[in-house]
Amino acid sequence: MENIALIESFSEFKDDKLIDRVTLMAILEDVFRNALKKKYGSDENFDIIINPDKGDMEIWRNRVVVADGEVEDENSEISLSEARKIEPDFEVGEDVSEEVKLIDLGRRAILALRQNLISKIHEHDSTNLYKQFKDLIGEIYTAEVHHVRPRVVILIDDDGNEIVLPKEKQIPSDFFRKGDNVRGIIENVELKGNKPQIIMSRTSEKFLEKLFEQEIPEIFDGLIMIKKVVRIPGEKAKVAVDSYDDRIDPVGACVGMKGSRIHGIVRELGNENIDVINYTSNNQLFITRALSPAKVSSIKIDEEKKRAEVFLKLEEVSKAIGRGGHNIKLAGLLTGYELDVIREGNVAEEEDDVELTEFSDEIEAWVIEEFAKIGLDTARSVLKHSVEDLVRRTDLEEETVQDVMNILKSEFEG
């Protein structure tokens, strides 16, 4: 088999792998030089001439003519009689160049060449893919669901690259079927052996930030800045925004008329509740805004301990804490302060108030916990609400709430 035929048979890889012919030829030369080293001990006296346009390649072996019987290195020297078989007028001391056909390397060597070529091309592809996606870390990417497994969703992009979306990087309400288009950010690229593993995330704060950049032109143009993003994926998020231009209302621009601009982001994140907050360097004011929708009466800050006592009227406590404690947790993360809620109320009532935990022999612990989630942890704080209101705001049945109310009322009527 001639060199060109072998080259063409190897070049079939070019079509399967997105690799240009020049790069393929460079890989081929490297592979063939390794084969020459194995057969002859060195490739230093070989010239490899590649024509990428024709897909042709020539290998020439260069040796010095020595007198018969004086050959010490068969790879770099040739006897006079052997040289004259090639050209009858060769003399001692002259250089001889002889073409080597690939088939001369032997069938086993050619099979090894083929395997080595496959390995080198895969290595080239992996390196390029790793570099490509390393540059995309932190950017939004879209791919199609290829396979859904219990702990991971496998996605395929338009170029056939495999992207991994682990369960812990999915929003709790996410549900995917084969063929669905999925958006997330490229969070990381890890090398598993020689193969890069591309990790996507939909739970990262960066994903929410990038969605804002895509959907809000003023953010994309740099007129509005995102100062900080915190979120409990699928539940609630808080985004602090600011603007250098006093004429621009950053919160209004992000939310849009009747929530028109933010609606698409909320839908993408499984109806995650998003609070957009006007950033300020005034820590008291920032904490107040972060605890929205609750109305804060006053704040006492300990800068050294990064703690803040937040004073609220009794009816505002549950709003500040939020369902499942999400609001106060995110407000703390956004501001960087540990927030302690202090109730303001009737002193006489507070003095004879009783912690709900004191009723643990009559009220089950999980029921007490349900009230605590909405900021109600004393008897009087519960009694201030109607049964209907408590049923609406907790996961408790009406009958359970009524039983609790009866128990608590009897404590003060006694």
Automatic annotation (TrEMBL):
Subunit structure, interactors included: Monomer. Binds directly to the core enzyme of the DNA-dependent RNA polymerase and to nascent RNA.
- Give the similarity note: Belongs to the NusA family.
Q: Name one GO biological process term.
A: transcription antitermination
Q: Which Gene3D superfamilies match?
A: 3.30.300.20, Nucleic acid-binding proteins, NusA, N-terminal domain
Q: What is this protein called?
A: Transcription termination/antitermination protein NusA
* Domain NusA-like second KH positions: 285-347
Q: Where is the Transcription factor NusA N-terminal domain?
A: 6-124
Q: Which gene encodes it?
A: nusA
According to its UniProt record, where is this protein located?
Answer: Cytoplasm
Matching NCBIfam families: NusA
Species the sequence originates in: Flavobacterium lacus
One CC-aspect GO term: cytosol
| Top-level taxon in the UniProt lineage | Bacteria
Q: Which CDD domains match?
A: KH-II_NusA_rpt1, KH-II_NusA_rpt2, S1_NusA
Q: What does this protein do?
A: Participates in both transcription termination and antitermination.
Q: Which PANTHER family match?
A: TRANSCRIPTION TERMINATION FACTOR NUSA, TRANSCRIPTION TERMINATION_ANTITERMINATION PROTEIN NUSA
Keywords in alphabetical order: Cytoplasm, RNA-binding, Transcription, Transcription antitermination, Transcription regulation, Transcription termination
Query: Which InterPro entries does the entry link to?
Result: KH_dom-like_a/b, KH_NusA_2nd, KH_sf_prok-type, NA-bd_OB-fold, NusA_N_sf, TF_NusA, TF_NusA_bacterial, TF_NusA_KH_1st
Keyword Transcription appears in the UniProt entry? yes
Q: Is Ubl conjugation included in the keywords of this UniProt record? A: no
Question: What GO terms are given for molecular function?
Answer: DNA-binding transcription factor activity; RNA binding
Transcription factor NusA first KH domain location is 202-279
